[in-house]
Every structure is written in structure tokens, then in C-alpha cells.
From TrEMBL:
Keyword flag Membrane: yes
Record key words, sorted: Leucine-rich repeat, Membrane, Repeat, Signal, Transmembrane, Transmembrane helix
Residues in Leucine-rich repeat-containing N-terminal plant-type domain copies: 37-74
Gene3D superfamilies: Ribonuclease Inhibitor
Keyword Transmembrane helix on entry: yes
Organism: Parasponia andersonii (Sponia andersonii)
Protein name: LRR domain containing protein
Signal peptide location: 1-31
Transmembrane segments: 196-215
Pfam assignment, any one: LRRNT_2
InterPro entries: DNA_repair-toleration, Leu-rich_rpt, LRR_dom_sf, LRR_N_plant-typ
Length: 217
């Protein structure tokens, strides 16, 4: 009887140990998958760039850890996993478009690509970047309308889309971004009405087009 109890205790101990090891392996695999997802998204961005005059993205390859890539900043997030937090491609002279895969950078907070020649539209998939606080695509060749999905980025505090070729009216959804502090949409082909709601920390507006501004409580 004692031997049976000892055997059962040993089996239970081994089963528990196996579960702990399996859980640890799963967590490590999940963490690796997440950072690899970020890496894959950025490689898709690199593939969409047709001209890199200064070879700025030369180290964007599988042989270099993604957090060491030029313009990429990582941070520890949930469960202390590393994820891409900031992407700065400003003043690199890049030509290309913005791929939808960029919307997979789930923990991206800062996105800056000003003073390049990115063309085309800002894809809808960027609406998944719910942590974004800063967007700067100033001085590029973006076309189409100011996307309405920007209004779903509840943490956004600074939005710069100046000096592009955007047209049409400003989507009403942007007017409801309660964290917004600065917005610059100058030097585009925009028109319409912009309603300022109660912004606790709203600081600056930059427009240079036909615009009607109203205030709502």
C-alpha cells in the first residue's frame, strides 16, 4: 500500500512537471511567434520599397535581430515579451508604398516616415494599431482621402499628414479623438468642416485649405 501511494505521488509529480515544462515551452514559442510576426511585417514593408538611396535598411534581414534594425525600437510588453514599439523611417529618401502587413505591429506606439516618397493610400489594416499615439507621414506622396479609421485610434495624440496629395473632406471620426493634441493636414487638397469637441489637452491645429471650424461641447 505504501509503495502504491509512493508510485502515485511520483506519477502526479512527473505529470505536474511535464505540464510546467510544456507551459514554459508554449510561452517561449508564443513570444517568438510575436516578435517574428513583427519581423515579417517589417520585411513586407522593406519589400514594398522600390528605392532606398542610402541603403538605410541594409540590416533589415533575418541575420540581424529585428530590434537592432535601423529605425526600429523594441520594448518589453505583456509577460515581458519584446515587441516593436516605434518605427522611424524619416528623412531616408525612401520610395514605395505602405503595405497592409504593417497593421500587424500590434504594440506600435510611434510611427514616423516623414520626408520620403511613399505613395498610394494608407491601408485600412493600419486601423489595427490600437496603441498608436504618434503618426507622421508628412512630406510624402500619399493620395486618396484622409482615412476614416484614424478616428478609431483612441490613444492618438499627434497626427501629421501635411505635404501630401490627399483630397476630399476630413472624416468626422477624427474630430472625436479625445487624446488629440496636435494635427497638421496642411498642403493637401482638403476641404470641409472640422468640429472641435471638448479636447482636454488640445494644443495646435495646422490647416491651409478651405475649412470651416466649429466648436461643440
Amino acid at each position: 500500500m505504501a509503495r502504491t501511494r509512493l508510485l502515485l505521488s511520483l506519477i502526479n509529480f512527473l505529470a505536474l512537471l511535464l505540464l510546467l515544462v510544456a507551459g514554459q515551452c508554449y510561452s517561449m514559442a508564443a513570444a517568438e511567434t510575436n516578435i517574428l510576426t513583427d519581423q515579417s511585417s517589417l520585411l513586407s514593408l522593406k519589400s514594398s520599397i522600390t528605392h532606398d538611396p542610402e541603403n538605410s535598411l541594409a540590416n533589415w534581414s533575418n541575420s540581424t535581430f529585428v530590434c537592432n534594425w535601423t529605425g526600429v525600437t523594441c520594448a518589453h510588453v505583456r509577460h515581458n515579451y519584446l515587441r516593436v514599439e516605434a518605427l522611424n523611417l524619416s528623412h531616408m529618401g525612401l520610395i514605395g508604398n505602405i503595405p497592409p502587413h504593417l497593421g500587424n505591429l500590434s504594440f506600435l506606439v510611434n510611427l514616423s516616415a516623414r520626408n520620403n516618397s511613399f505613395h498610394g493610400i494608407l491601408p485600412n489594416e493600419l486601423s489595427r494599431l490600437s496603441q498608436l499615439m504618434y503618426i507622421n507621414f508628412g512630406s510624402n506622396d500619399l493620395t486618396g482621402k484622409v482615412p476614416s479609421w484614424i478616428g478609431s485610434l483612441s490613444k492618438l495624440s499627434k497626427l501629421f499628414l501635411y505635404s501630401n496629395r490627399l483630397s476630399g473632406s476630413i472624416p468626422a471620426s477624427i474630430c472625436k479623438l479625445i487624446s488629440l493634441e496636435m494635427i497638421n493636414l496642411s498642403e493637401n487638397q482638403l476641404s470641409g468642416k472640422f468640429t472641435i469637441y471638448t479636447y482636454p489637452s488640445f494644443v495646435l491645429l495646422y490647416f491651409s485649405f478651405t475649412l470651416y471650424i466649429s466648436v461643440a461641447a
